[in-house]
Amino acid sequence: MSNHITIIGNVQGSEPELKYTSGGMAILTFSVVDNHGKDEKKKTMWHNVTVFSKLAENVANTVSKGSTVIISGRYEQDEFTKKDGTKGKSIKLIADEVGVSCRWNSWVADQTEATMKQIGQIFPTASQVSEDEFF
After folding, report:
1. Are 18 and 27 in contact (CB under 8 A)?
2. What is the pTM of this model?
3. CA separation for the pair 56, 18 (Å, rounded)
4. What pLDDT score was predicted for residue 73?
5. In this structure, are strands 26-36 and 4-20 parallel, antiparallel, or unpaired?
6. Per-residue pLDDT at 37
7. How many angstroms separate the first and last alpha carbons of the chain?
8. pLDDT > 60? residue 123
9. Looking at the predicted structure, is the pLDDT value of residue 95 above 90?
10. Are 7 and 32 contacting, i.e. CB atoms less than 8 angstroms apart?
11. For the range 13-21, what are the long-range contacts, defined as Cβ-Cβ under 8 Å and sequence gap of 24 or more?
12. What domains can you pick out in the chain, each with its CATH number?
């Protein structure tokens, strides 16, 4: 039985938090809200997401509170001791892949211009093409 899951939702709560272990491994944590259904049948589910290593650093530089993301990963259950001494359990989503959804996130013109400048530096012979050439 597999516990692999893909979710689409919005980064909510606080901004993603990037930390490093004593060995230098990056760990990013954040919450994603997944809404489904309509009106009185609308349901909201919160997912605690954890991302590791280089992916964690890349996501930290790309995603912020309010971003719509697509996450693929697996659930893990942790047990912990509450302040009152009783045992508790929490579930977190360990991300294997994280991407920004282009459906609801708008693209900022400044990013496009900066990207085009970078492409020009990397590929100096690259030239702009007209949309008419493709359609």
Report:
1. yes
2. 0.71
3. 7
4. 96
5. antiparallel
6. 83
7. 46
8. no
9. yes
10. yes
11. 13/46, 13/65, 14/65, 15/64, 15/65, 16/59, 16/60, 16/63, 16/64, 16/65, 18/56, 18/57, 18/60
12. 4-106 (2.40.50.140)
